[in-house]
Design brief:
mainly alpha; about 70% helix; about 0% strand; about 220 residues
Length: about 220
Amino acid sequence: MIRLRIDFLYRYYSCIEKASSLFFNAASCGVSKTTHFVRIAIAKSQGDGKAPANSLTQLLLRCTDEANHERLFPMPEQFNIAAIRHLRTAEHLEAGGHTDDAGYHFGVCAENAVKCAMREAGLESYWASQGNQALRASPMFGHWSLLGTKIANAASIINVHAQGRRANPLKQLSASGATVFADWSIDIRYADPTHVPIDGAKLHRWKHGAAQFVNSFVLV
């Protein structure tokens, strides 16, 4: 996320309001065009006499630089390490009787395991080569149960472009519809009463699924 100083933005709200649509709509246009549109927004705001040249210009261009950097150099997630860490955390919480929290971490564990496999199989690189929009629409983004739907919908891409030892397990997962975590939700972390408490049968299924995913997509 692009981190902005809220107090600074508040002072120049009238300018930011005018610039925002240009800035965020430009995000899909690519690095050079994003910078171009931000410079236009700055020029318009300064032309109205609503923005001091130095401070606001530096702020908006810094936002552009951060956006461009994130587009070119995405955060290097360590999916394999995260999967194992969440599995251990879930097992520890389960042993302590914290069923809901354990269930949450089993789901996050499985998510990281699958994304680890997709990266190793070259799928992340393939989606990235199709553009930022294609990457964000891919299973590399999202949580269960949406993640399962994305995996199933990407079956044809996985069948053609997945490579290496992770290819067959991923093909099998996409063919099955990835339903193990169909009733898991990221909102468990908020204690959403539509998703908690988690019963023993559901927890056992998620635990088994998470362990199986780590074994198939991370360890073997």
